[in-house]
Design a protein that fits this description.
The chain is mostly helical. The chain contains eight helices and two strands; from the N terminus they run αββααααααα. Strands 1-2 form a two-stranded antiparallel sheet. The radius of gyration is 19 Å and the shape is globular.
Length: about 170
């Protein structure tokens, strides 16, 4: 289905005729679905916070709250030591690790491998905010975490799930 046909379909779904009123009235569930589909299709999410804001958030970040945020990732990732890769790599020891080097996972996109370097808190923040903007061409389908506090908590949780946690 082409993009033009998808948009036409979404437009038709959003503005259904009602029996009570002849005017087109959007169905709230369809509007929500259409906006999420549009954001997913084009990779739009909140931008990463500036480095100094992340530095202010990390000391107060909670791994416990981060574990709750991680629930969004469980479908594709595991986080326990020695866990199997699912659709995505195991995330144990991610903070400070080399990008694209999780043992037991070989399906990294060329874009992520070209991104290179290490997963610093700043790079993780940008990637978690909007993976497709941080690494254009990535195969990760996640739209991103819009809340800077959630991202800081998630980074704190990822950091706690490591043999060698990084100091913030």
């Amino acid at each position: 289905m082409t993009t033009r046909r998808r948009l036409r379909f979404l437009r038709r779904q959003c503005f259904r005729q009602t029996e009570v009123d002849i005017r087109a009235v959007p169905d709230p569930r369809t509007v929500l679905f259409a906006s999420l589909a549009f954001a997913f299709a084009f990779g739009w999410a909140a931008p990463a916070v500036p480095d100094n804001a992340l530095a202010e958030l990390l000391p107060d970040a909670s791994p416990v709250r981060g574990k709750a945020v991680y629930r969004k990732c469980r479908l594709c990732h595991t986080i326990e030591r020695g866990g199997d890769a699912k659709l995505g790599p195991n995330l144990f020891g991610t903070v400070g690790a080399a990008v694209g080097a999780s043992p037991g996972f070989a399906k990294y996109s060329d874009a992520l491998l070209a991104f290179g370097g290490h997963w610093t808190p700043v790079r993780l923040d940008a990637y978690l905010a909007n993976p497709r903007a941080a690494v254009p061409g990535t195969t990760m389908a996640f739209v991103g975490l819009g809340d800077a506090g959630d991202r800081a908590d998630m980074i704190a949780y990822l950091n706690s799930m490591s043999d060698e946690p990084v100091e913030f």
